[in-house]
Structure formats: C-alpha cells, structure tokens
User: What shape does this take?
Amino acid sequence: MQRLTLMTAGALLLGFGGFVYDSAVAQTPAACSSREVSIYFDKGTTEFNKFSQQLVERVATEAKACGARQVVAEVKSGPDRAEAVSHAFKDLGVKVIVTGNPNAIPSAESVADREVIVRVAAQANGPRTVIG
Assistant: This one.
C-alpha cells in the first residue's frame, strides 16, 4: 500500500513538473520572427484611436521583448502623422525609422492613405558586435 502511494505521488510530481515546463515554454516566444502590422488613423486626425494605440503598445512590447530597439514605419499620409507615429513609439521606449515619403500629403484621404505599416525585423539570437 505504501509503495502504491509513493508511486502515485511520484507520478503526480512528474505530471506537475511537465505542466510547469510546458507553461513556461508556452509563455516564452519560440522565435522572434519578422512582423508587419498595419495601423490606421481615423479620417482627419493625427492621433491614434484606442484600438490603434493598443496595436502600437503591443508592437512596441514585442519588439523590446525580442531585443529590437527600433521599428520601421512606412507613413504615406503627411509629416504630422509621421511625427505622431514617432512619438507614440518613443513614449514606449522604441525608436522609429520613418520610410516612404512622409512629407507628401495625399490629395484625397483614402483608407490606404491613412495606413501606417510598422515592421519589426527578426533578431539574431547570438551576441552582437558593435563596431565604431
């Protein structure tokens, strides 16, 4: 009887250990792959709405978790929105490299013109060498 109790307790401990290990692995990103997110401004505004701000926060959090210090943002809708994107990420501790032609203001403001494409590059897992 004692042996059966010990075997049962051992099996429970092994099961619990496996559960803890699986939970830890599930919470850690397997790999920091490249990501691309489209974020849209509301028509006529230069501020993010609640949903877009949540996307900015999530991208910034994931970028920092993967070791990225910067993201690339393709802004098509004018310098005010390019500045808003830069400030939103800067406030979260992530630098933004603005690409495209952020100074060009589109003649008609379509949904495509209000889009900002944010890219986070995959990070190498090895140590980085800084030259300079």
